[in-house]
Design goal:
The protein has eleven helices and 15 strands. The chain has 292 residues and is α/β, with parallel strands linked by helices. The radius of gyration is 19 Å and the shape is globular. It comes from Rubrivivax albus.
């Protein structure tokens, strides 16, 4: 009996762990982690952990020739405009020449500010931050990797990832902190995806993603940021967040927070639902919040 193909998951955090049940039995799974402390937990999840650091190419030598497919969930470095981590990983994978499928999870931040307009995957990228520029660089690298190696590369552009059981991604945490949002006049459109649906999107892309194809991995909800958090507050009986004018926000909030309040876009997901044939479990925010 032929053994299942080998899948390498790079950056197996919350979304990676949600992916594992979907690939169990269909793939033999190896997980790259930079933290030796996570090895026991990953073994308990039924996968074989490999310790390696994307910042240190010398630790990635064993990856060459290891996997038939890769799901790359690790973020770029925290500085610069190039993703050297992706390059270190790609060079290691190219030495083996075995990878036939690769899914890279990027961000909708690559589109920059669209002034609240609807956009899709044909819209040009216009990264406004170094963080988004690193993602654009990574996307370009992985597309090159696909052309060079013959692998089918799928890029999933994810917006804000949430789930009520996700560390750092439970929207109730922000509401409970009383973190402010912009008033209605100054507010921006934001986009979201439930963490479980993003994991399922990775699985769908492994099987159905076309070569060097980009997919917006977002749900059907179209809400401004303040309305999003008002919905969360109302659903769980919490005080609605305070509202600030843009001038007040610029005077009091951190540059990182302001960067998320400076880009407004509504993102279409037709490719996700039609080409990848993904039926979202949580197509709206109300569906995702109903899991409590």
């Amino acid at each position: 009996m032929k053994s299942p193909p080998m899948l390498l998951v790079v950056g197996c955090g919350d979304v990676g762990l949600r992916l594992l049940p979907w690939v169990a039995g269909r793939w033999r799974v190896r997980v790259l982690t930079s933290s030796p402390a996570r090895v026991p937990a990953l073994r308990a999840a039924g996968v074989v952990p490999l310790v390696g650091n994307l910042d240190d190419a010398a630790t990635l030598g064993r990856l060459g020739g290891l996997a038939d497919a890769v799901v790359h969930l690790a973020p770029p470095p925290g500085q610069g405009v190039r993703d050297v981590r992706s390059r270190h990983l790609g060079r290691a994978l190219l030495r083996g020449g075995r990878v036939r499928r690769l899914v890279y999870v990027s961000t909708t931040g690559v589109y920059g500010d669209a002034g609240g307009a609807w956009i899709d995957e044909t819209s040009p990228v216009a990264p406004a931050t170094a963080r988004a520029q690193r993602r654009v660089d990574a996307e370009a690298y992985w597309r090159w990797f696909g052309r060079c190696s013959g692998a089918r590369v799928s890029i999933l552009r994810a917006p804000g990832i949430y789930a009520l059981d996700r560390d750092g991604g439970d929207p109730r945490e922000r509401v409970r902190r009383g973190a402010p949002v912009l008033n209605a006049k100054d507010d921006v459109y934001t986009n979201h995806i439930h963490a479980d649906d993003l994991a399922r999107a990775c699985m769908a892309a492994l099987y159905r993603g076309g070569p060097q194809r980009v997919f917006n991995a977002c749900d059907h909800t179209s809400l401004k940021m303040g309305d999003y958090f008002d919905t969360v507050a109302d659903r769980f009986g919490l005080p609605r967040p305070p509202r600030l004018s843009r001038a007040e926000a610029q005077a009091t909030l951190s540059p990182m927070t302001l960067s998320f309040m400076s880009e407004s876009r509504r993102i279409g997901n037709r490719r996700l639902t039609e080409e990848l044939r993904l039926r979202l479990r949580y197509p709206t925010l109300d569906d995702g919040l109903a899991t409590a």
